[in-house]
Write a structure and sequence with these properties.
CATH class of the largest domain: Mainly Alpha
Largest sheet: 7 strands, mixed
Shape: elongated
Number of helices: 16
Number of domains: 4
Distance between the termini: 57 Å
Order of helices and strands: HHHHHHHEHEEHEHEHHEEEHEHEHEEEEH
CATH architecture of the largest domain: Up-down Bundle
Length: about 625
């Protein structure tokens, strides 16, 4: 198989990226140089303005002094007093501006001496005037010292202004040269980007063709291995590896298949809705409902995958399995239909267990639906509970079991049953024996993941024609089960904000943040939002009232848990509600949601958001990190 072309392509691609990086860095350097050049031009203008201000101060003082002596009107002395008060500061500012230029700094010192000397001469003339010596004042005027001093001062200012003018011209020329260089660098960057993009595209096509060839070669090799496996015992490890790859392929293929179907619903429905928006708005709602249904199915698929991989956040509590199963009886009978008989066999003195009640209900419902599908002509579905002690002997035969006491919940059907090879793969994701469109193959894998994440054990007992029993073993809890509260019906209208409540929303994904902000504002909340933890803390300090911190968990630099900890340190009264599509152990440890934590998993609906925010603000959720 040839390797020269891909190697050359890789070298060219690396070289292209290197050239692009150099071009971008050069452009950045040029921009910085351009900024420095413009800063120097601005500096020159400031020096010229300061020189003009100083000259005007001295001239104003001199004119005011002469006007006062000639008229005796104190109003003429105002420029003189202003110059006396501000001239030292103006001169100091000028010296600071030109400190980096030795020639201008020396000129500024001479100017300071001349200006202050002239100001002092004006003061002495006024003193003579106030002393009543009009002859002395006239003598001082006739000597012409004032004119000579002002001529010297103007000469110094003119020299400095001329120097600054030359510097300004040179700096302006430099700034224009840097601007031209920046434009050239940006053009070069554009060319480099296009070149790298072309190289990357050509390399991707080449690698795709190579991957196809490699796949065909691997397929042929696998076929040869399978043909030889029956004749060579040493091929057993290769066969097992192929089975693993098949499972991964089935998993990825199933995910791609189901997600593509759901995305087809979402994209197709939204496309039709967009087309009908102007011509047939009455039918747009149907398309949007279809798109929402597809998106919700995709969210359910993600939840099932998280359950299988044991990464869904669980909120376990001590519960009585008998009470839970009894409470599900009516719902199960409606679900499985009237053609099936549903029985419950509940053990007396059943131990308590600790599990996520809603996930356990979903697991039992999944098993009952599977049982129903196995009995198309009717039959009996039996739910049973009992105490179980899995000893060392059982644990040695099942390496994934920890010896101990468990609460067992089983679902038995009188359906067609399963052969041993189907039982062996029953928990594989996307593996199903049902017809097309009748199942995703994720039901049992979701149950398996939930039970394992809860520290339990699951087993299947089935034979063709003899029905199937699935047993769930959940660890015993020594604590007392809480008495369930009354069932509160879901609100018909989404609960809204009360008394101008303020929500600080923190979400690093722009589109998700925008949707969440709009939803909360539609519910009447005042929303302050930020893209990360650092800016959220700035907003928190600037906002006098914050009732709820609604934050994503997975964010760069500062995650949601760290942000909540700092928020509660500054504002202990603020309630906290977390959200994420994947927790990464920020608020979930050993698969369990931390106690006292309020959590709303993504994706969520408008109604779910409204209900959860209201619960947390009303105290039904947590206000701790």
């Amino acid at each position: 198989m040839p390797t020269t072309k891909p190697d050359r392509s890789l070298i060219a691609l690396v070289a292209g990226f290197a050239a692009l990086a150099i071009t971008v860095l050069a452009a950045i350097a040029l921009v910085q140089q351009q900024q420095r050049a413009f800063t120097r031009v601005t500096h020159t203008l400031r020096v010229e303005n300061q020189l003009s201000l100083i000259l005007a101060r001295v001239q104003g003082a001199e004119s005011g002094q002469r006007g006062f002596i000639l008229t005796g009107n104190d109003g003429y002395l105002e420029p003189y007093h202003i110059a006396a008060a501000r001239l030292p500061g103006d001169l100091a500012a000028l010296r600071a501006l030109v400190a980096d230029n030795p020639d201008q700094a020396a000129a500024a010192k001479r100017l300071s001496v001349a200006a202050l000397t002239r100001q002092d001469a004006l003061s002495r003339t006024l003193a003579v005037y106030y002393g009543g010596d009009e002859t002395g004042v006239r003598m001082r005027f006739r000597q012409g010292q004032g004119k000579a001093a002002m001529d010297d001062l103007r000469q110094i200012v003119g020299g400095m202004q001329a120097t600054e003018a030359r510097l300004q011209q040179a700096r302006a020329d430099t700034a224009r040269r840097w601007a031209s260089a920046v434009v050239a660098a940006l053009a070069a960057s554009t060319v480099a980007i296009l070149a790298v993009g072309l190289l990357a595209f050509r390399d991707a096509r080449r690698r795709l063709a190579l991957a196809v060839q490699t796949g065909e070669a691997l397929g042929a090799a696998n076929n040869r291995l399978m043909a030889e496996a029956a004749h060579r015992e040493v091929a057993e490890s290769q066969v097992r590896q192929m089975q693993k790859m098949e499972a991964v392929g089935q998993l990825t293929g199933g995910i791609a298949h189901d997600f593509n179907n759901m995305l087809a619903i979402v994209i197709g429905s939204l496309d039709i809705a967009k087309r009908r928006l102007a011509t047939d708005p009455a039918r747009v709602a149907v398309c949007l409902d279809n798109a929402l249904d597809g998106a919700q199915r995709a969210a359910e698929l993600t939840g099932r995958l998280l359950a299988f991989s044991r990464q869904q956040p669980l909120a376990p509590r001590v519960l009585d399995a008998n009470r839970l199963v009894s409470g599900m009886s009516d719902m199960l009978r409606r679900t499985v239909g009237e053609h099936l008989k549903v029985e419950t066999v509940l053990a007396a003195g059943l131990w308590n267990t600790s599990a996520d009640a809603s996930q356990l209900e979903n697991a039992i419902l999944n098993l009952c639906v599977n049982g129903r599908d196995a009995m198309p002509r009717g039959g009996r579905l039996t739910l049973e509970t009992r105490n179980a002690d899995l000893d060392d002997a059982y644990a040695s035969a099942h390496p994934d079991v920890t010896p101990g006491q468990y609460v067992m919940i089983s679902v038995t059907d009188t359906g067609v049953g399963m052969p041993a090879e189907v039982v062996a793969r029953a928990f594989d994701p996307f593996y199903t024996t049902k017809g097309v469109g009748r199942g995703t193959g994720l039901g049992l894998s979701q149950v398996y993941g939930f039970v394992k994440q809860s520290g339990g054990h699951i087993r299947i007992d089935s034979e063709p024609g003899a029905g199937t029993t699935v047993e769930l073993y959940l660890p015993r809890s020594q604590a007392a089960a809480a008495t369930p509260g009354p069932i509160v019906p879901a609100p018909v209208v989404s609960p809204r904000a009360v008394d101008g409540e303020v929500v600080l929303l923190v979400e690093d994904e722009t589109s998700v943040r925008r949707v969440s902000v709009e939803a909360l504002r539609d519910l009447g909340y005042t929303v302050v939002h930020a893209p990360d933890g650092a800016r959220a803390l700035i907003a928190l300090d600037a906002q006098p009232r914050v009732d709820l911190l609604f934050t994503d968990i997975v964010m760069p630099d500062m995650n949601g848990r760290e942000l909540a900890d700092e928020t509660l340190r500054r504002r202990p009264e603020v309630k906290v509600l977390y959200t994420t599509g994947y927790t990464r152990n920020a608020i979930v440890h050993d698969g369990m949601l931390d106690a006292g934590v309020a959590f709303l998993p993504k994706p969520f609906t408008f109604s779910q958001l409204a209900t959860k925010v209201r619960q947390v603000l009303d105290g039904a959720g947590a206000n701790r990190a």
